[in-house]
Amino acid sequence: MKNTTISLDQAYIDQVKQNISPHWGELGWVTYKRTYARWLPQENRSEEWDETVKRVVEGNINLDPRLADSPSEEVITELTNEARELYRLVYGLAATPSGRNLWVSGTDYQKRNGDSLNNCWFIAIRPQKYGDSHIVPSYLSKDEQAVSMPFSFVFDQLMKGGGVGFSVVKENIAKIPPVDQKVDLTVVIDKKSASYQDSVKLGATDKATWEEQNGGATDYVYYKLPDTREGWVLANARLIDMHFNQTNPENKQKLVLDISDIRPYGAKIHGFGGTASGPMPLVEMVFEINQIINDRFGGHLTSVDGTDICNLIGKTVVAGNVRRSAELALGSNDDQDFITMKQDKDKLYHHRWASNNSVAIDAEFNDYEPIANGIRENGEPGIVNLDLSRNYGRIIDGYQKDIDGEVEGTNPCGEISLGNGEPCNLFEVFPYIAEKQGWNLQDVFKLAARYTKRVTFSAYDWEISRQIIYKNRRIGVSMSGIQDWLLNDLGHRVVTGFKDEVDQETGEKIKVPIYDPKGIKMVTSAYQAVVDADNEYSKALHCEPSIKHTTVKPSGTVAKLAGASEGMHFHYAGYLIQRIRFQASDPLLKALAACGYYSEPDIYSPNTTCVEFPLRAAHADSENFASAGTVSIEEQFATQAFLQTYWSDNAVSCTVTFQKEEGDKINSLFKQYRHVIKSTSLLPYYGGSLEQAPKEPIDKETYEKRKAQISGDVASVFAKQHDDQKDLELVDQEDCENGACPVK
Fold first, then answer.
1. pLDDT reported for residue 267
2. What angle do CA 435, 438, 443 make, to 5 degrees?
3. DSSP 8-state assignment for residue 652
4. Backbone angle region of 379, left / alpha / beta, with phi > 0 → left and psi within -120 to 50 → alpha
5. Lowest mean pLDDT, pick from 290-299, 344-353, 512-521, 729-738
6. Lowest mean pLDDT: which of 41-55, 172-186, 420-434, 719-733?
7. pLDDT of residue 581
8. Which of 92, 173, 199, 669 could crosslink 204 through cysteines, CB 3.0-4.6 Å?
9. b/e per residue 565-581 (b: at least 16 CB within 10 A)
């Protein structure tokens, strides 16, 4: 039976374009054009914003499962009208799907890879079965437990552009059996390969020479990698599993990986986009992972080993020019080897940079000083309170035992608590902009809830993911520009002061925040709109209501589109220089130069150009405006607690910035909010002190002087120049403010 398809007609799109102007931020169009506008080969150009929104909305609306089964005219009319409303909402930039959806929704890649619409995932590092998944090693049955499985999951999702949180807490790592044998690894490559010389330098062996020396031998496992993502994953899986007798059915100790067919560096990657890295990063990775496991022969892998393997996988994925590797490693709070693993500077610079590291805590935990000390030293670890995540939605709704009982960790940015194999599923509302454009916020949040709900009906690749997604139907409706919205509607920030109280459990004196009652009402009303919409839509779709619904993601690139402050974060400064890095060959640089934007060579990376954009925050001149450089650490904690209490039933991602003199307050603030904040991380406020810093605060006079040097519209100038180069992108754009999640 053929699916019924909903599509937006051009007449309606033209009408929207006449009546609505997108709320581009000062960096908005530039960010969009280089990050989310897909190349249209048949037209020899990249998408325009109206075309991107059409693709994204149609890709989403057609996930409604009712369209697969002879839908009624009523359903078709309902979804057609909803598609139109969504189009109007997103085109005006009053709200947007996640960056992943902006890039992938409505493409053939989405239809082939159901996982592609989800930003980030979580997996526990312990032996698991592959199940009925798109990747199952040939030497295993579907139901066989394998040490390789979670690492394969990490590798696969990272290569599909997702971020991955993973748990190496002691109880997971303890389930990995002892390493039964060392593996003698050989990587071979044919002389005909364009990657031959570079691969040999990294330890690969000439294929013909190896064949001459091993003619007639049968004491090895030979795997010739196909030129696919799955081939890389399966090669790594075979390498890992051969170390354990249970998953080494041939009982052989020699493994030969043939990389001759892998496309060379610079070759086009179809589907996801970008260009190939060549096999060299893979060669380096498999030798290093093999060494880690061989070194544990007769003993057990550790949490540090598990993290290193995931970090080496992440490093390999980063070698592609489109993908980012976003990882969060979650370890035990008493695992000192894990907590201090980044103090090994050689390994940090080699691969341990690939994850943000956090520790899992529970209701009984109270030893925050070692964590606070680590944060003061290097900004890590963050903390994830699994007890709160499992037993609470919004804090105001009180203790609900096991309301989310399968939670084991979080996505890399910490805004969504997740079970094993589960992804986050995000949509972002800019309430301040939506109100400016005349939207009823109840309608906006309803559209957001329904958009994310449909994503849960994608055809997911991994059995473990399908099972938990269809059970939980978790969604994550987020807000950005929260500080802009509160300041505009309240006339001041939501924390109006603090009152002295005593912690009833510890007897310590604390300062409890006072929140504006209207601010509480604003976010409570928005929350209820999301829940009501989900309940209504779930009945229509005959599926479970979502286990949780709301969040605050850190944002980043998406917030830049609309010029909103990122997530709950305060603007970095009222006025600032934002530096964006471009590939030196990017055709957009010519248009930026013509409009008067200052640029200079990037001092950190070759063949990269650093462009400076003067920015002004909304309400920058208000007496109640606060920036990350001026707002206290106490108020930032209090604001995160406000959103966790009244808005988010998932979690609130926040990177609290602190001045050097505030570092001694971290321990006491962790204790004060131990029953409220589910996850958090902290970083010192640098204030642009680094040379060519991404953000540098400036005064109003400097801003106005820099703005006066800029003339013309970059979009118009770019169009007139008719550059037809493609597949170039911003170097340092991330979907999250703290760089933990990928763009695409």
1. 62
2. 80
3. B
4. left
5. 729-738
6. 719-733
7. 84
8. 199
9. bbbbbbbbbbbbbbbbb
The one-character DSSP state at 532 is: H
- Sign of the C-alpha dihedral, residues 387, 389, 395, 398? negative
Q: What are phi and psi of 308, to 5 degrees?
A: -60, -45
Asked if residue 397 lies in contact with residue 649, where contact means CB atoms within 8 angstroms, the answer is yes
Q: Which of 662, 411, 648 is nearest to 551 (CA)?
A: 648
184 forms beta bridges with 254
Query: Cα separation of 469 and 63, whole Å?
Result: 15
Could you tell me the pLDDT band of residue 573, with boundaries at 50, 70 and 90? confident
Considering the candidates 47, 82, 120, 413, report the single residue annotated as catalytic.
413
Phi, psi of 229 (to 5 degrees): -60, -45
CA–CA distance, 91 with 635 (Å, rounded to integer)? 34
Query: What's the order of all strands across the beta sheet hosting 655-658?
Result: 120-124, 163-167, 327-332, 355-361, 382-385, 679-684, 655-658
Residue 734: per-residue pLDDT: 47
Which amino acid, 587? P
Q: Quick check: is 415 catalytic?
A: yes
The yes-or-no answer on residue 413 being catalytic is: yes
CB contact burial 131-166 (16+ within 10 A = b; e otherwise): bebbbbbebbeeebbbbbbbbbbbbbbbbbbbbbbb
SS3 state of residue 612: strand
Question: Cis link prior to 281 (omega < 30° from 0)?
Answer: no
In this prediction, residue 379 carries a pLDDT of: 84
Amino acid at 733: Q
| Lowest-confidence segment of 298-307, 531-540, 550-559, 682-691 by average pLDDT | 682-691
Distance, in Å, from the CA atom of 136 to the CA atom of 157, rounded to the nearest integer, reads: 15
Residue 723 pLDDT more than 50?
no
Residues 124, 126: Cα–Cα separation, whole Å: 6
Determine the Cα angle at 48 with ends 44 and 49, to 5°: 160
CA 341 from chain centre, in angstroms, equals 23
Question: For residue 390, with 0-12 CB atoms within 10 Å meaning exposed, 13-18 middle and 19 or more buried, which class applies?
Answer: buried
* Active-site pick, 415, 428, 635, 734: 415
